[in-house]
Automatic annotation (TrEMBL):
Part of a binding-protein-dependent transport system for aliphatic sulfonates. Putative binding protein. InterPro entries: ABC_SsuA_sub-bd, Solute-binding_3/MltF_N, SsuA/THI5, TAT_signal. This is Putative aliphatic sulfonates-binding protein. It is found in: Periplasm. Its main location: periplasm. One of its GO terms (molecular function) is ATPase-coupled transmembrane transporter activity. It comes from the Bacteria. Keywords: Signal, Transport.
Length: 325
């Protein structure tokens, strides 16, 4: 592999930045491949990037080809694709299943984080269910995704309203199975994120009893761009280019909510009412580099909270599993 002047400068900068923050410097190689394989789902940042085409143009200008892998229903199978070698990056999913995978022995690292506001994960029930608050969930069944947003939001909601996990029946279902289960009344409630929770609220005449953006006391989960440590250290130039292209896409989404939600609607095949509700969030994307000290402090607090409640199977020092390129 030939390292040109631009790559040499980038490699030197990466080494210096790592030294400044006390992280072990990467054994930098600019690039071992000219193709990046990116996971995507039926909503969120990667979907918009895939459909709009500007993301691929930005990388093409750096001689990088994009291959989209998916769609994935949630972050766990996206991570499995990365670990198994069929994708280079996950799809900007939840940090919680990524932490669980790392604790299970996967050689995954976080390369960047995204906090979108307002947060819109919610616990929903049907309006005719007789359930009007979290306290009413006692003795009820709630669908969640294991070690993901759905599960942690439920645990936080139960704690806030004086209930324990043993007071309810937790049903572990991935989103494609949870939606019909909720619609058919096989579970009493569903803890889920956008846009699936918004679609279900509209389709099944449901309502919120706990809303992350207003009812959660502090953020416990974040969106993250995850790859393997080997890929990050062997392809620093490509990883940096991918991160930068995603930041550009995130800024476009923040500035163009109507256009972004219309693209997402075409993929999700949901009603104009749901689309307009999502536009109304006017969601903003805020990105954090992997070695941002203030962010890592908050992320560690969240990881500790998850470990203490056994949503994660053990404690983890998050700073050991981030890579700045």
């Amino acid at each position: 592999m030939t390292i040109n002047r631009r790559n040499l400068i980038q490699a030197t900068a990466a080494f210096g930045a790592a030294a400044l923050v006390g992280l072990p410097p990467l054994a930098v190689q600019a690039r071992t491949t000219d193709t990046v394989r990116l996971g995507w789902g039926r909503g969120g940042l990667p979907l918009i990037a895939k459909q709009r085409g500007e993301f691929e143009k930005q990388l093409a200008a750096k001689d990088i080809k994009v291959e989209w892998v998916g769609p994935f229903p949630n972050h766990a199978p996206s991570l499995q694709a990365v670990v198994g070698g069929s994708a280079d990056f996950g799809f900007w999913g939840s940090t919680t299943p990524a932490l669980a995978a790392i604790l299970a022995g996967s050689n995954l690292v976080f390369t960047q984080f995204n906090v979108y506001k307002p947060r819109s994960t919610a616990i929903i029930v049907k309006k005719d269910s007789g359930i009007d608050s979290v306290a009413d969930l006692r003795g009820k069944s709630i669908a969640v995704n294991r070690s993901g947003l759905g599960e942690f939001l439920l645990i936080a909601a139960l704690e806030k309203h004086g209930l324990s996990r043993s007071d309810v029946t937790v049903v572990y279902l991935n989103p494609p199975d949870a939606a019909p289960a909720f619609g058919q009344g096989k579970v009493d409630a569903w803890s889920m994120w956008t846009p699936a929770v918004d679609i279900a609220r509209d389709q099944f005449d449901a309502k919120d009893i706990f809303f992350e953006g207003t009812d959660l006391d502090f953020l416990i989960d974040y969106s993250s761009l995850v790859t393997t440590r080997d890929f990050a250290t062997e392809n620093a130039d490509l990883v940096r280019a991918t991160i930068d292209a995603y930041r550009t896409e995130g800024q476009w989404i923040s500035e163009n909510p109507t256009e972004a939600e219309t693209i997402a609607q075409a993929e999700g095949q949901y009603s104009d009412a749901v689309r307009d509700h999502l536009i109304g969030y006017n969601r903003q994307n805020i990105f954090y580099e992997a070695d941002d000290a203030a962010f890592l402090t908050e992320f560690q607090r969240a990881a500790d909270w998850l470990s203490e409640r056994e949503i994660l199977p053990g404690r983890i020092n998050v700073a050991d599993h981030v890579v700045r390129v």
